Amino acid sequence: MAFNMTPFLPKNCYFLIFNREEIMFGRVYYLTAFIWSALLLIPSAFLNLLLLRSLYLSLALRKPSTLLLYSLSVSDLLIAIVLLPIYLTKKVAELTYNVELFCFIGKHSYFFGYLFSASSLFTVTALSIDRYLIIHKGVHYAEYVTRTKVTITVVSIWVISIFLSSLQFVIPTNGVSTLAGFVTAICFFVTVVFYYKMLLKLRKTKMEASQQSESATEISSIPRYRKVTRTIMILFMVFIFCYLPYFCTKIVMSIIGDAKKGVESTECVVTVLTYTRAFINPVILLCRTSEMKEAATFIMKRIIPC
């Protein structure tokens, strides 16, 4: 490879690239990524802590499926308090040309990056399936979705995410990127299919309720279901929006190679974009879910008394 690299990186860091010439060339991009990450850290941590506390305080949300929201928020919180500090340290190592620190911290950066990304993706997909079951099964929903089943689902999500994120240590980087793209495509397909089925079911329920003169309560609940359904879809689209530039960059890197000047600089910026969802997700949930909004308002009034 035609890199101006510091030689003899440890063997277990074989998938990391330390290219001094690239860092010098794209120094502005590296600094941008550093500043962007630093600005995200505290707001993301605060918002996700606020969301977790709101979930705990809201009596209306004390149901099995809320565990999925806990899982999503915990994943975003860990991005803020674990991954972002690691990523900032990695940028410092690159900007100061500290190869040893880069090698040590870089492994953790990629591992936790894939871990929290996979857990978020699987959780949002599981939420879309849960919404479908609520709408499709109606009063029988509780028979299909129990706390035990949801707990097993959440644990499985994290175990599978840990396994997938560990694969980067045993298979080539291109293989990891291909696998990540394949898994994301499957989750995207599943989410879109269930979202479409939910909309059809809501439309059918509304028409049947109107024709059969069902109770006003049943008809009035349809907009609420529709709003929750759209919220889950928005969360998924945020994930796709944040990750699409990263995947595109990885595809370009696999085609033209890592040595092309500017490629690594671009990757460091689009990587931070993937972390931005840790800030966006809690904002969406707190703004679009009335129970969470009320609980968050109550908490903020106690923190900042008027």
From TrEMBL:
<keyword id="KW-0297">G-protein coupled receptor</keyword>
<feature type="transmembrane region" description="Helical">
    <location>
        <begin position="28"/>
        <end position="55"/>
    </location>
</feature>
<feature type="transmembrane region" description="Helical">
    <location>
        <begin position="177"/>
        <end position="196"/>
    </location>
</feature>
<feature type="transmembrane region" description="Helical">
    <location>
        <begin position="108"/>
        <end position="129"/>
    </location>
</feature>
<feature type="transmembrane region" description="Helical">
    <location>
        <begin position="150"/>
        <end position="171"/>
    </location>
</feature>
<keyword id="KW-1003">Cell membrane</keyword>
<keyword id="KW-0812">Transmembrane</keyword>
<comment type="similarity">
    <text>Belongs to the G-protein coupled receptor 1 family.</text>
</comment>
<keyword id="KW-1133">Transmembrane helix</keyword>
<dbReference type="InterPro" id="IPR017452">
    <property type="entry name" value="GPCR_Rhodpsn_7TM"/>
</dbReference>
<dbReference type="Pfam" id="PF00001">
    <property type="entry name" value="7tm_1"/>
</dbReference>
<feature type="transmembrane region" description="Helical">
    <location>
        <begin position="228"/>
        <end position="246"/>
    </location>
</feature>
<feature type="transmembrane region" description="Helical">
    <location>
        <begin position="67"/>
        <end position="88"/>
    </location>
</feature>
<protein>
    <submittedName>
        <fullName>Histamine H2 receptor-like</fullName>
    </submittedName>
</protein>
<feature type="domain" description="G-protein coupled receptors family 1 profile">
    <location>
        <begin position="47"/>
        <end position="285"/>
    </location>
</feature>
<dbReference type="InterPro" id="IPR000276">
    <property type="entry name" value="GPCR_Rhodpsn"/>
</dbReference>
<keyword id="KW-0675">Receptor</keyword>
<dbReference type="GO" id="GO:0005886">
    <property type="term" value="C:plasma membrane"/>
</dbReference>
<keyword id="KW-0807">Transducer</keyword>
<keyword id="KW-0472">Membrane</keyword>
<dbReference type="GO" id="GO:0004930">
    <property type="term" value="F:G protein-coupled receptor activity"/>
</dbReference>
